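User: Could you write out the 3D structure of this protein bound to BV8? I've included everything you need below.
Assistant: Certainly. Input first, then the structure.
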Amino acid sequence: MGSNKWGRTEVSFEKPRFDPGFVSALRDARHVCVLTGAGISAESGVPTFRDAQQGLWAKYDPHQLATPEAFEENPELLWRWYRWRRDLVAEANPNPGHLALAQLAELVPRLTLVTQNVDGLHQRAGSRGVIEFHGNLFDDRCYAEGCIIVHDQQAEVPVCPNCGANLRPGVVWFGEAIPENALNESFAAAADCDIFLSIGTSSFVYPAAGLADIASENRAIVAEINPNPTQHAATYDFAIAGNAGVALPKLLESIAT
Ligand code: BV8
């Protein structure tokens, strides 16, 4: 791990210890920008993208499935996959990591929460104004018009009542553009923040993974929380090696004292 002006912050599961410089910077921050990935929902029982898919989905690579090409080729298969994920997420609950981020928003002047996750668990934890960079698992959209459609169809592949095209889950697939508002708001927050916290993401998927670079180029302190340090850990100001559900509540305790 590289050295940096603050030193390295290692969090053990037993006695998480944060660098005092990090704690005071967070306590004094004017604007904190947080990016979360699948890892923050792992302790809620929602498998991450890198975790092996479960059961009958084990033989599928999500990076191949989450594409418009896969949907056009086999909409029935895609709908089975997304319904399986919806059922799994519906059984899940926000964990202490989600709850800590909702509390952090009350402790700092401004917090922007950008999530790559589509599970809605941040909102269920009480976070407001969540920027869903990759859409939401529970929205249905017309494949042709793009608009959200509320319906009660039970068909294997529901169709748009306006134009008859297939409906699709309201998520952003690989090769698709990020919703413009989400992109612009996230880029602006990353450029404005004093501290950028990257939590539970392998930082492989762009443009989400580029937010940390924007923050760093604008002189923000950049930190990650991940039990498995990412390929960026050595260049970040801090790399907190721990599970979000353990480290985030302890971090809140540190700044509240
Ligand atoms: C776009 C919704 C252009 C769907 C998702 C080469 C270089 C750069 C970019 C590209 C490239 N080739 C292709 C691209 C572009 C591509 C991309 O980045 N590909 C990657 C694979 C290289 N990106 C795109 O296509 C994006 N769009 O570029 O558009 C464009 C512009 C204009 C017009 C047209 C097009 C769109 C990407 C969005 C894809 N959709 N999700 C769905 O969910 O079904 S992405 C999906 O994968 C997830 O949403 C998530 O964002 C991502 C997985 O990332 P993570 O969240 O990081 O999850 P992962 O499993 O990888 O890691 C989990 C981490 O948690 C691990 O590090 C683990 O250690 C940690 N962890 C585990 N437990 C815990 C924990 N951490 C904390 N606590 C714990 N307890």
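The beta strands are 31-36, 110-115, 131-132, 135-142, 167-171, 195-199, 221-225, 238-240.
User: Perfect, thank you.
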